[in-house]
Design goal:
Layout: H1 2-18, E1 26-27, E2 55-58, E3 69-75, E4 79-87, E5 110-116, E6 124-130, E7 135-140, E8 150-151, E9 159-165, E10 168-176, E11 184-185, E12 188-199, E13 204-208, E14 227-232, E15 240-256, E16 262-266, E17 269-281, E18 284-290, E19 345-346, E20 349-350, E21 353-363, E22 366-375, E23 385-396, E24 398-412, E25 417-430, E26 433-444, E27 457-465, E28 470-480, E29 496-508, E30 515-529, E31 535-548, E32 553-564, E33 569-570, E34 576-577, E35 581-592, E36 599-610, E37 613-627, E38 630-643, E39 648-662, E40 667-676, E41 681-693, E42 696-707, E43 720-730, E44 733-734
Parallel strand pairs: 1-14
Antiparallel strand pairs: 2-13, 3-4, 4-10, 5-6, 5-12, 6-7, 7-8, 9-10, 11-12, 12-13, 12-14, 15-16, 15-17, 15-43, 15-44, 17-18, 18-21, 19-20, 21-22, 22-23, 23-24, 24-25, 25-26, 26-27, 27-28, 28-29, 29-30, 30-31, 31-32, 32-35, 33-34, 35-36, 36-37, 37-38, 38-39, 39-40, 40-41, 41-42, 42-43
């Protein structure tokens, strides 16, 4: 009888836990039992906690789960705990791909916890662990929509253990509350919570809560669709994380002297520094850095730029990543009033930093972000600089709408100062329709233009429908002045006015078929020069996309571009695109193989006309898992442009290969080699990491840039242009 009553209580609790009023937060289970944190979910109390009700997200939303999964969650005063039992009818086919930290992949079986700590319906943190015990943590922003929604470079302090059995695998995870930032009201915290299990060979994702894949690939992490969950009696302990480091290295680089000769400069280095993290309130987190170093950050990928506009590279440095969406002041594409890579990086070279601080969080109803950093002098060409950012914004009308402002400053020791400031807002007008407003202006000490002129301004207006299922659309207006110069921003082009429109439709095909989605879209844009009021560019692009249930995708895109080039630009050292009017038409095919095995690849090919020539490009990006100890990824791109009228041919090869060796979850080594025939350079990067616990790291890094054709100029270039060997150790103390 008591057993029946106990099960009845659990059943009723389960109903209370997961079937309440949709507007009321779910109440998380709080227990005080001790756990033997070993990756085996065998403590008796686990059985008293209701299982998370999982539904199929992929490949067939709402379909029958093919494998049984038990995920349970509880918390105490220190941690959020996850216990997962992942049964598998074919355990010998479970996919283990790597021990490496942050080796997130659709090729690996995994479980994950998704948290929106502020329950702000915009940002989330994902904590994932695979069968090998490899942990990955990454941040989600912009409500998991758009092309820039996640960042794998974000890292936190947490732990996970894994065991495999004859019936599948099990895992225990614990996330310290001290690693999260959240808001306490009346001794309660409300967070958005989600969880999932991913079975790689079947591309099956089992998810909680029930989130349809209507918003694109990252729908399963969509913060606004997570279950609002209440944690009672949680305190924000706000520890001090103090991380001193020591770095030693040797190497060299070459510089030209007054006579044009290449002179070798030795770069022996020994330095110490300090990074500190602390939350001054439940909602306000600060990072302090002294003698900042980013030597352990992975190298950028080489690229071939076939346009007359600037290229964008993503941020990888941890210092800038926590709640980085607070600092977003974006217009179209990657154009942003603040681009953190303007700090400490010049033409791809790291600039030494004396230090500074970063403050991010919430004060009352306001999101706030503050950055101030000071660089050291590198050489006569790069002077000491101070970089400052102030960002404020707050919700208005509803949780999906905000207004805000930003101010950036850049003070140069040579007297070249720059300021930029602006107002922005996103209004959720109704449903999935949003109005975006972005107005910015810059002021530069080297310019004589007045403070309030259109030439120094940028205006962006956009109306878009964000739903990725059914009919979608977007309309935008941009105006960028000729003298607009955000010293800490990214702007692809200047001095133009542009109108763009986009429409599309996505069908979700009957789930009895292998073909799962059909997408058609068309967009068009016209831009005019602000100086002449004449047409500068006109584009039209139509695309058909097909997606299958196993994740393989086919894309067909045709693009027409009329480009009136105002000034000549170099395609290479030998080929110049002269100022003229050009009509380019290209057809592009893309294909991604199903990410369900240990070998996958992306293919892309393009054919058409290009600035008076005929273009053919082809690329392949394979990924091959040899074992959980060894993995390879690669990339190869071939480009050929035949300018028959000029009797010239542009040809380039770009190749990358990455080999990763991971002995266990603590030791990882990776080798990264790149060859770029356009720039006639090769680059080699080796990185060894020992990570016994979060916050304690030893890095051994080797970088070298090699000139492929040193005899191409006079005087002869050195074969090895730069070389650096660095060793760095970081140890984190928690107070």
């Amino acid at each position: 009888m008591r057993i029946i009553i106990a099960y009845l209580i659990i059943f009723l609790c389960s109903g209370y836990l997961y079937a309440q009023d949709a507007n009321a937060p779910v109440k998380a289970v709080k227990l005080s039992q001790e756990i033997n944190f070993d990756g085996i979910v065998d403590e008796a109390f686990w059985g008293s906690i209701p299982k998370v009700p999982l539904v199929m997200h992929w490949p067939s939303f709402g379909g029958s789960l093919t494998e049984n999964t038990e995920i349970r969650m509880y918390y105490d005063d220190e941690y959020i705990y996850i216990g997962a039992i992942c049964y598998d009818s074919e355990p010998d086919k479970m996919q283990e791909i790597s021990f490496k930290r942050d080796a997130i992949s659709e090729q690996a079986d995994a479980i994950a916890l998704v948290l929106d700590p502020y329950d702000d319906n915009e940002n989330a943190l994902v904590f994932s662990v695979t069968i090998t015990g490899s942990r990955a943590d990454y941040s989600i922003k912009n409500d998991a929509q758009g092309g820039d929604t996640w960042n794998l470079s974000w890292n936190s302090y947490w732990d996970a253990k894994v065991t495999t059995t004859s019936e599948g695998w099990q895992s225990e995870m614990r996330i310290p509350f001290s690693s999260l930032r959240f808001q306490v009201e009346d001794d309660k915290v409300v967070m958005g919570v989600g969880a999932y299990r991913y079975i790689a060979r079947k591309r099956e994702m089992q998810i909680y809560p029930e989130i349809p894949p209507d918003w694109g690939f990252w729908s399963f992490t969509k913060p606004s669709m997570l279950a609002s969950t209440e944690f009672e009696g949680v305190k924000n302990k706000r520890p001090w994380y103090t991380s001193p480091y020591i770095l030693g290295g040797t190497g060299y680089h070459y510089e030209e002297d007054d006579l044009g000769n290449n002179v070798k400069i030795n770069d022996d280095d020994l330095q110490i520094g300090l990074d500190i993290q602390h939350a001054f309130s439940d909602n306000l987190n600060a990072d302090f850095t002294i003698n900042t170093d980013f030597a352990q950050v992975e190298a950028d990928n080489q690229t071939i730029n076939l346009s007359r506009f600037s290229l964008f590279f993503p941020e990888k440095r941890r210092f800038f990543l926590e709640r980085s969406s607070t600092f977003d002041f974006k217009a179209d594409g990657n154009n942003n009033l603040f681009y953190s890579r303007r700090i400490g990086i010049e033409d791809g070279e790291l600039i030494p930093m004396l230090g500074g601080a970063r403050l991010v969080g919430r004060v009352g109803d306001w999101d706030i972000g503050v950055i101030n950093l000071q660089s050291r002098k590198l050489n006569d060409d790069i002077a000491v600089e101070n970089f400052g950012v102030l960002r404020l914004r707050r919700n208005v009308l509803n949780q999906r709408s905000y207004v805000g402002g930003m101010f950036t400053s850049r003070f140069n020791a040579d007297g070249r100062d720059n300021f930029a400031y602006g107002f922005d807002g996103i209004i959720n007008v109704f449903g999935e329709d949003y109005l975006k407003i972005n107005l910015a202006q810059s002021q530069d000490s080297e310019e004589d233009s007045g403070l309030n002129t259109l030439d120094r301004s940028r205006l962006y207006l956009e109306w878009e429908n964000r739903q990725s299922k059914g009919f979608g659309y977007g309309f935008s207006y941009s105006n960028v002045g000729d003298d607009y110069n955000p010293g800490l921003g990214f702007e692809r082009r200047f001095n133009f006015t542009e109108i763009q429109s986009e429409i599309g439709y996505i069908w979700f095909v009957d789930e009895s078929l292998k073909l799962r989605t059909i997408e058609i879209s068309a967009n068009a844009g016209t831009s005019f020069s602000n100086s002449t009021n004449k047409l500068e560019t006109r584009t039209f692009e139509g695309e058909l996309g097909l997606g299958w249930d196993r994740g393989n995708n086919l894309g067909i895109r045709i693009e027409q571009l009329k480009d009136r080039v105002p000034e000549a630009f170099d395609l290479s050292d030998e080929i110049e695109i002269v100022a003229n009017e050009y009509d380019n038409t290209t057809l592009t095919l893309t294909y991604q193989t199903a990410p369900v095995g240990l070998l996958l690849a992306n293919f892309e090919s393009q054919i058409g006309t290009f600035y008076g020539g005929d273009i053919i490009t082809a690329s392949i990006a394979p990924e091959f898992v040899v074992s959980k100890y060894l993995q390879f990824t690669g990339f190869y791109q071939y480009s050929n442009i035949d300018f028959a009228d000029l009797n010239e041919t542009f040809e380039s090869h770009l190749a990358r290969i990455n080999m990763t060796v991971s002995l266990n979850v603590r030791w990882t080594a990776s080798t990264f080699a790149q060859v770029n025939t356009l720039n006639e350079i090769s680059a080699v990067n080796f990185r060894l990491r020992f990570n016994p616990v979060d916050g304690n790291d030893f890095y051994l890094v080797y970088n070298e840039v090699i000139n492929n054709n040193p005899d191409s100029v006079v005087p002869r270039l050195p074969v090895s242009e730069t070389r650096a060997i660095l060793a760095k150790y970081v140890h984190t103390f928690r107070f």
